[in-house]
Amino acid sequence: MTTDPMILSSYPSDIDSLRVQLIDGSFQAQQQLIPQLVSRGDNGFDILMEFLYNRRQTPVSLVDGKVYQILFNSEYGKAKEFLQTYFPTGVVPLKSECAIDYSPLQQLLAVQDFQAADKMTIQKMCELAGPSASARKWLYFTEVESFPITDLQTINQLWLIHSEGKFGFSVQREIWLSLGKNWDNLWTKIGWKSGNNWTRYPNEFIWDLKAPKGHLPLSNQLRGVRVIASLLTHPAWS
Fold it and tell me: Which of 28, 117, 129, 222 is a plausible cystine mate for 108, CB 3.0–4.6 Å?
């Protein structure tokens, strides 16, 4: 295993034990280890940096997203320098077939400002659809059908990685399929409807990880089923 020179390469034995467990552990174990490492101060942050450094050439995982967010939001000066050097645009590759800049969305999700990120998602999707959609600030389902696979996957991956796997269009699609493609059951399951009452925007939505799985992003849900139907049946998920 390689270690960047800006990261300490030796640790007290008890900390090193946590380091080994972080590398080899299951997702659940890694999730539990991260707060323990944070509580150990600089040495713990150094281990998180080393972990992320050695993951930089591999497909991004939910743990990578969690570690990145911890470092991004920390006051540890070395972490800021490290992220700027190796992950200047985050851990999710910001790929676009239309030269859309997804870094504002990445930054909002990194700090878990989910309400602002939801607004930014619609803004970026309207940019993707073209000048007419950007001007009206909402989408036609036919525009969604024409979205490039790459861009839709980038938006989804950003939500997925920065929500510990809880939010994203692919999450909503998985729930929808598990419910036999029943829209009414989906609205209830993801917290968009309670009984006969639609969840009111914005105050009745839950803008943090306490929300039901699939609660976000809203995907233009206030304008009916056709937009989200186009999203959940898009070739991006084939």
Answer: 117
